[in-house]
């Protein structure tokens, strides 16, 4: 067996914020080291944020000699915001390279549409888009042009999720009956850029972060969500804008199972992890009960250092997650990313590189057909999240948004004749 051929790519990252700094850029740097990525561009709005990323000591130490092109370039002076700067970067990108979208949730849809129209493959952080209709439109646009769109649900690359999936799909657990998941970010998020975009009209704690566990439960079990209700009382961010900062969601699945998902921005800053998170799924089969229990924050490691770091949320006593994303010294040069955060980005970029290698050298019509075949294979494999194989996530988000903005009214998800969400009605009770 030969490994699939991979075509090296240029990569542009849109959004220089937290997730780019923590996970995306170091992963792309590692792929550049391996020769899979050629040029890297990062696009932001404010020169100060670009500077913070370019001068981040963790990245400079981890990846000596590597750098990225800056849009806007803070070294040229000026401090004005440049929200159009990413268009400059796109101009210098050949067709069918790879653009990673790490922008605020509500910007994903128009920007991904623009990228597909410009002929670029896209990897986006979750949530893909906020309505199912938008997701379908983008999926059709991508398929028509033979372009990959992958959604970065990194919990799919956490080995414990893959272990549970294999056992569940083999029938070893029986069937999901009832589950609970929680993911609460640290309180200092209150003072971050989130207050500018994670506001009631755009997003909420469940949309922002709860989707990880909804996707994971679907990924493990193959069940489809059919009803969502989300309770939250709006409260102000420090800048006075209102947000749904704490959400309590109930998701009902097509076998009648329930999953309760609690999300928020209030894990104590002095808590020992980057956040608190975990999941318990209770299952039943003939004559026995089963259980899937994941402690996703405390993974068996405790460190106490002499003095805490200077970043918000840093603690002297900590329970670091060795599995998500670490930069490790494996003999250098620099440091190597490890963990499912890296593996997820690697798998998505490799999908693009494989599609491009397989269609290289063919005439335009044959290349398009080949790219579409590979896209269909990726959809069917179901490991990488694509607009087609994870569209239930958009329905859950849409249902969740409708519910949270209407006092937690239950919202049904229908898959036929056309997928849609609607308020639960009296005729649905007892169904
Ligand atoms: N666990 C996860 O999968 C995970 C974790 C964190 C964030 N995310 C997602 O990543 C996205 C970004 O989140 P974040 O935490 O990095 O937020 P952030 O607020 O730190 O970063 C967003 C960045 O986008 C930039 N931006 C806004 N408009 C722009 C434009 N026109 N051109 C270029 N840049 C622009 C902002 O200046 C900011 O730097 C969100 O969709 C979020 O839901 C996913």
Q: Which architecture name of the largest domain does CATH use? A: 3-Layer(aba) Sandwich
How is the main sheet built? 8 strands, mixed
In CATH, the topology of the largest domain is named Rossmann fold
> So what's the CATH class of the largest domain?
Alpha Beta
In oligomeric terms, what are we looking at? Answer: single chain
**Gross morphology:** globular
Count of DSSP E strands? 20
CATH homolog superfamily of the largest domain:
NAD(P)-binding Rossmann-like Domain
Read across the widest sheet, the strand sequence of neighbours is 14-13-7-12-11-8-19-20
* Number of continuous helical runs: 12
Output the keywords:
12 helices, 6-stranded parallel sheet, Dihydrodipicolinate Reductase, domain 2, Rossmann fold, 2 domains, binds nicotinamide-adenine-dinucleotide, alpha/beta, 8-stranded mixed sheet, 431 residues
């Amino acid at each position: 067996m030969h490994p699939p051929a991979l075509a090296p790519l240029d990569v542009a990252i849109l959004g220089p914020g937290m997730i780019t700094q923590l996970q995306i850029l170091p992963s792309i740097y590692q792929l550049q080291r391996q020769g899979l990525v050629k040029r890297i561009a990062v696009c932001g709005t404010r020169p100060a944020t670009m500077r913070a990323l370019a001068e981040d000591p963790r990245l400079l130490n981890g990846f000596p000699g590597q750098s990225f092109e800056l849009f806007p370039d803070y070294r040229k002076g000026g401090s004005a915001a440049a929200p159009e700067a990413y268009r400059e970067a796109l101009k210098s990108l050949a067709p069918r390279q790879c653009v990673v979208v790490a922008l605020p949730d509500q910007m994903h849809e128009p920007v991904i549409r623009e990228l597909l129209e410009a002929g670029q493959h896209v990897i986006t952080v979750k949530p893909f888009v906020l309505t199912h209709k938008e997701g379908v439109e983008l999926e059709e646009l991508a398929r028509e042009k033979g372009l990959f769109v992958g959604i970065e649900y990194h919990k799919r690359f956490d080995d414990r999720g893959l272990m549970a999936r294999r056992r569940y799909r083999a029938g070893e657990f029986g069937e999901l009956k009832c589950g609970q998941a929680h993911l609460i970010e640290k309180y200092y998020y209150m003072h971050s850029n989130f207050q500018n975009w994670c506001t009631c009209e755009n997003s909420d704690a469940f949309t922002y972060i709860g989707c990880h566990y909804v996707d994971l439960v679907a990924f493990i079990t193959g069940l489809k969500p059919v009803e969502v209700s989300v309770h939250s009382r709006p409260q102000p961010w420090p800048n006075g804008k209102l947000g749904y900062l704490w959400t309590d969601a109930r998701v009902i699945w097509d076998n009648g199972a329930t999953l309760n998902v609690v999300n928020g921005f209030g894990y104590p800053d002095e808590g020992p992890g980057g956040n608190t998170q975990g999941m318990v799924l209770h299952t039943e089969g003939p004559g026995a009960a089963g259980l899937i229990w994941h402690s996703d924050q405390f993974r068996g490691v405790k460190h106490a250092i002499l003095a805490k770091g200077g970043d918000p949320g840093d603690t002297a006593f900590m329970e670091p997650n060795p599995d998500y994303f670490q930069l490790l010294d494996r003999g250098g040069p620099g440091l190597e990313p490890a963990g499912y955060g890296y593996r997820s980005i690697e798998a998505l970029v490799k999908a693009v590189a494989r599609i491009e290698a397989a269609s290289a050298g063919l005439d335009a019509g044959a290349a398009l057909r080949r790219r579409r075949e590979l896209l269909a294979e990726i959809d069917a494999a179901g490991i990488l999240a694509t607009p087609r194989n994870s569209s239930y996530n958009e329905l859950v988000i849409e249902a969740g948004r409708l519910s949270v903005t209407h006092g937690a009214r239950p919202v049904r998800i229908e898959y036929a004749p056309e997928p849609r969400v609607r308020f639960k009605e009296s005729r649905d009770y007892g169904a």
